[in-house]
C-alpha cells in the first residue's frame, strides 16, 4: 500500500507533467488571439481532375467563426499562413473553404477571433461551387433580364461545393422558384474548338471566361433540350478556364451541362472530372486554448427529394470519444446514441445540441435534402424512416412535418405512428384544403372508424368542420362524415339526424354535393323509423328534382351495373371498393334505399370483415325497409352466422328457425337445418 508521501510525490509528478503538456501545447499555438483550431490532414485523393495543389475542407464551426469568415486561417507545417478562399460560411455552423496545399500532410485550421480582419485574398482556381437564391418571379427571356432577377433575389438559401453542374433537384434551397448559380474552373486538355450545351427545366445560361456560350432562356419546361440543341462553340487554349452556369426555374429545378472537347466524338455530360480537382482532407476534433470542448459533425445520409418530399436523414457524430451522449435535434426529439441517425421531416435551420460526458455544445445545422436516394429502394428507406419517426414527440413539429410523419408511417404500415402524426396535425389547426392533405386526413378518420375509435373519428370531424375560416363545402363534408359514424357505426339515429338537418339548414345555399347527400340520408332515416311516406318523398325528390340532380363533383362515384360490380369486388375481397359501389348506387339512384338492398349489401361487407355487430344492424335495416324483400332468407341466414360468431347461440337458433319456418322453399333452408342440428 502506498504511503501518504508516495501519494504526494505522485501528485506532484502528475502536476508537472500536465503543466509541461499545456506549455508544449501553448508553444505550438499559432496565435493566442485565435481561440480554436482543428488539425487538417491533406491526403492523396483528388476530388476532380488532377494534378492539383488546392485542398478543400468542410468543418463544423461550433458557432465560433465570424459571420464573414474573416477569422479563418490555415497554417502549414512550418507555421506559415497559406492562402484560402471561402466557399461558404455564416449560413449555418459549418463552413467550407479551399486553401493552397503544395504539400500533403498536416495543417492547422484556426478560428474564433472576433477582432480578426479578413486575410489577404488570392484567387484559387479549382473546384465548382453552387449558390441558391430564392426567386422573385419576373421574365427571364434573355441574360439581361435574368441578371436583374438575380439582383432582385438577394436571399441566399445555400452555398456549397458541387460535384457537377447537374441537378435532379435543388440541393440548397427551394425545389421551385429558385435561381442556382454554378461557378468553377474547368481544365481544357488541349487547344481547339469546344462545344457547350445546356438542358434545363427553365431558363439557363453557360459562360466560359465570362463570355456567353450557350443558352436556353425563358419559361419552357424540359422537353426539347435532350438532343443538345441549345449549344455554342468557342476556341480555348489548353489550361484552366472560368466556368459559370445559371439556371432560374419556377418548377422542378433539374438541369445539366454537356461539353465536347477536341477529339470527343459527341457531347458528354460535364462531371466532377471536368473541373480542376481539390485534394481531400480529414479533420480532427476541435482544440481550445481554454481546454477540451464537446464537438460534433453531421453528414447527409439520404432523403426523399427524388420523390418530391423534403424529408432528410442526417447522421450526427461526436468528434471526441465520449462514454455518454445526449442529443437534442432541435425539433423536440432526442437521442442517447453516440452517432445517431435522425430524420428531419422538413427543411430548416435547426439548433442541435450535444451533451458529451457533461460537456455541452450546440450548433445550427441547415437541413435540406441534398443527395437523393443513393440507389436505396424506396420501400427500405420508408421502413427505416417510419421505425424512427413513429414515436416522435409532436409538440414542436409543424403541421407539415406532422403530415409527413403520418404519411411515412402509413406507407410503412406503422399505423399507430400514422394516427399520431395526422391527429397532431389536426389538433394544431390543420384545414385540409388541398387534395393530398384531404386524402390523408380522411384516412385518419377511416383508421379511427374502422378500429372502433368512434369518438376519435367524431373529434376529427368536429375539429375540421368547426375550424375558423373553414370553407363551407369542407365543413359540410366533415359534418356528413360525422353523421356517418353516428348512424352507421354507433346507431345514434337522433344524433345523426340532428347533424344532417344542420347541414341542410346551414349549407343548402352552397353549391355542394354533400348537402344532397345529407338530404338522401334524411330519407333513409325516415325509412328506418318506419315513415315510408316521408322517406319516399325525400328520396324521389333527390332522384328526380332538377335542383337535386345537379352534380358538383365534390367526390367521386361510379356508374354502371352496381350489383354486379359489388359481387365482383366481394369475390376479390376488395371491401373498400365494394362499399364505394354501394355509395355510388345510392347517390345515382336514391330510391334504391326503399328496397333495403343497399343496407343488406353493407351487412354482407361487415360480415366479411368480421364486424358482426355492425353486420347484424345493417341486415336488420335492410329488412326494415322491406320485410318481404327477396333477400329476406339470406339476411336471416347471415344474421344467424353473425350471432354464432358472437357466441350468442340462442339468437342464432332463432334466426335459423325463422328461416326454416318462413322460407322453407329457399335453398338456404337446408343449410339452416344443418346449423340447427
List keywords for this structure.
19 helices, alpha+beta, six-stranded antiparallel beta sheet, 38% helix, 677 residues, disordered N terminus
For the largest beta-sheet, the strand count, sense and barrel status come to: 6 strands, antiparallel
Low-confidence parts: 1-27
N-to-C CA distance: 91 Å
Could you tell me the radius of gyration in angstroms? 35 Å
Total number of β-strand segments?
26
In percent terms, what proportion of residues is strand? 15-25%
Mean pLDDT across residues: 91
Helix content: 25-40%
Going by helix content, strand content and strand pairing, the class is: alpha+beta
- The geometry reads as elongated
With helices defined by DSSP (H or I, 4 residues minimum), what is the helix count?
A: 19
What does it look like?
- With 677 residues, the chain is an alpha+beta fold.
- 38% of the residues lie in helices and 24% in strands.
- The strands form 6 sheets. Strands 1, 3, 4, 7, 18 and 19 form a 6-stranded antiparallel sheet that branches.
Secondary-structure map with pairings?
Elements lengths: L3 H25 L7 E12 L6 E7 L12 E3 L5 E2 L1 E5 L5 E7 L4 E7 L16 E7 L8 H9 L4 E6 L16 E11 L3 E9 L3 E5 L2 E6 L14 E6 L2 E11 L5 E6 L7 E2 L8 E6 L3 E2 L7 E8 L8 E7 L6 E4 L5 E2 L5 E4 L3 E9 L2 E9 L10 H12 L9 H13 L3 H13 L7 H16 L3 H12 L6 H18 L3 H15 L5 H16 L3 H13 L1 H4 L12 H10 L3 H14 L8 H12 L3 H14 L6 H14 L3 H14 L4 H10 L1
Antiparallel strand pairs: 1-7, 1-18, 1-19, 2-6, 3-4, 3-7, 5-6, 8-9, 8-10, 10-15, 11-14, 11-16, 12-13, 12-15, 16-17, 20-21, 21-24, 22-23, 22-25, 25-26
Helix pairs in contact: 3-4, 4-5, 5-6, 6-7, 7-8, 8-9, 8-10, 9-10, 10-11, 13-14, 14-15, 15-16, 16-17, 17-18, 18-19
Amino acid at each position: 500500500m502506498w504511503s501518504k508521501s508516495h501519494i504526494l510525490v505522485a501528485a506532484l509528478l502528475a502536476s508537472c507533467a500536465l503543466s509541461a503538456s499545456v506549455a508544449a501545447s501553448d508553444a505550438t499555438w499559432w496565435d493566442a488571439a485565435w481561440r480554436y483550431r482543428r488539425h487538417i490532414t491533406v491526403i492523396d485523393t483528388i476530388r476532380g481532375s488532377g494534378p492539383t495543389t488546392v485542398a478543400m475542407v468542410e468543418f463544423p464551426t461550433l458557432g465560433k467563426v465570424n459571420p464573414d469568415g474573416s477569422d479563418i486561417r490555415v497554417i502549414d507545417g512550418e507555421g506559415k499562413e497559406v492562402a484560402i478562399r471561402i466557399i461558404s460560411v455564416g449560413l449555418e455552423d459549418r463552413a467550407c473553404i479551399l486553401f493552397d496545399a503544395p504539400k500533403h500532410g498536416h495543417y492547422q485550421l484556426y478560428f474564433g477571433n472576433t477582432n480578426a480582419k479578413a486575410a489577404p485574398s488570392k484567387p484559387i482556381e479549382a473546384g465548382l461551387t453552387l449558390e441558391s437564391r430564392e426567386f422573385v418571379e419576373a421574365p427571364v427571356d434573355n441574360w439581361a433580364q435574368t441578371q436583374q432577377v438575380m439582383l432582385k433575389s438577394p436571399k441566399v438559401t445555400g452555398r456549397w461545393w458541387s460535384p457537377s453542374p447537374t441537378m435532379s433537384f435543388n440541393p440548397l434551397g427551394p425545389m421551385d422558384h429558385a435561381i442556382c448559380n454554378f461557378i468553377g474552373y474547368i481544365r481544357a486538355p488541349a487547344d481547339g474548338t469546344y462545344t457547350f450545351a445546356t438542358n434545363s427545366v427553365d431558363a439557363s445560361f453557360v459562360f466560359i471566361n465570362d463570355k456567353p456560350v450557350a443558352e436556353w432562356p425563358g419559361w419552357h419546361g424540359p422537353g426539347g433540350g435532350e438532343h443538345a440543341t441549345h449549344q455554342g462553340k468557342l476556341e480555348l487554349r489548353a489550361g484552366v478556364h472560368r466556368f459559370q452556369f445559371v439556371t432560374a426555374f419556377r418548377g422542378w429545378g433539374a438541369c445539366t451541362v454537356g461539353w465536347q472537347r477536341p477529339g470527343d466524338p459527341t457531347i458528354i455530360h460535364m462531371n466532377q472530372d471536368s473541373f480542376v480537382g481539390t485534394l481531400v482532407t480529414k479533420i480532427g476534433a476541435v482544440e481550445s486554448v481554454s481546454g477540451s470542448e464537446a464537438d460534433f459533425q453531421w453528414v447527409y445520409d439520404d432523403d426523399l427529394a427524388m420523390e418530391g418530399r423534403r424529408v432528410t436523414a442526417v447522421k450526427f457524430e461526436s468528434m471526441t470519444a465520449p462514454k455518454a451522449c445526449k442529443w437534442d435535434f432541435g425539433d423536440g426529439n432526442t437521442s442517447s446514441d453516440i452517432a445517431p441517425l435522425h430524420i428531419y421531416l422538413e427543411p430548416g435551420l435547426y439548433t442541435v445540441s450535444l451533451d458529451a460526458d457533461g460537456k455541452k455544445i450546440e450548433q445550427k445545422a441547415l437541413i435540406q435534402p441534398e443527395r437523393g436516394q443513393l440507389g436505396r429502394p424506396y420501400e427500405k428507406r420508408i421502413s427505416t424512416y417510419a421505425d424512427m419517426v413513429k414515436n416522435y414527440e409532436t409538440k414542436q413539429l409543424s403541421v407539415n412535418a406532422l403530415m409527413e410523419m403520418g404519411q411515412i408511417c402509413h406507407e410503412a404500415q406503422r399505423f399507430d405512428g400514422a394516427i399520431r402524426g395526422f391527429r397532431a396535425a389536426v389538433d394544431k389547426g390543420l384545414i385540409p384544403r388541398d387534395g393530398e392533405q384531404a386524402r390523408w386526413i380522411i384516412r385518419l378518420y377511416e383508421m379511427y372508424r374502422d378500429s372502433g375509435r368512434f369518438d376519435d373519428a367524431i373529434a376529427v370531424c368536429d375539429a375540421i368542420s368547426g375550424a375558423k375560416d373553414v370553407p363551407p363545402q369542407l365543413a359540410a363534408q366533415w359534418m356528413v362524415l360525422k353523421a356517418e359514424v353516428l348512424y352507421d357505426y354507433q346507431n345514434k339515429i337522433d344524433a345523426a339526424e340532428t347533424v344532417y338537418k344542420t347541414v341542410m339548414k346551414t349549407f343548402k345555399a352552397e353549391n355542394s354535393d354533400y348537402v344532397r347527400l345529407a338530404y338522401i340520408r334524411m330519407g333513409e332515416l325516415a325509412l328506418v323509423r318506419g315513415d315510408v311516406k316521408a322517406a319516399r318523398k325525400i328520396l324521389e325528390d333527390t332522384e328526380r328534382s332538377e335542383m337535386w340532380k345537379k352534380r358538383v363533383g365534390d367526390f367521386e362515384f361510379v356508374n354502371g351495373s352496381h350489383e354486379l360490380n359489388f359481387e365482383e369486388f366481394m369475390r376479390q375481397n376488395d371491401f373498400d371498393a365494394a362499399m364505394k359501389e354501394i355509395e355510388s348506387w345510392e347517390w345515382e339512384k336514391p330510391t334504391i334505399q326503399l328496397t333495403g338492398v343497399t343496407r343488406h349489401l353493407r351487412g354482407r361487407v361487415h360480415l366479411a370483415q368480421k364486424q358482426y355487430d355492425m353486420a347484424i344492424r345493417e341486415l336488420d335495416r335492410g329488412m326494415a325497409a322491406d320485410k318481404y324483400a327477396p333477400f329476406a332468407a339470406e339476411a336471416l341466414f347471415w344474421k344467424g352466422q353473425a350471432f354464432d360468431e358472437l357466441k350468442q347461440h340462442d339468437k342464432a337458433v332463432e334466426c335459423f328457425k325463422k328461416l326454416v319456418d318462413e322460407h322453407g322453399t329457399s335453398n338456404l333452408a337446408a343449410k339452416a337445418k344443418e346449423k340447427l342440428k
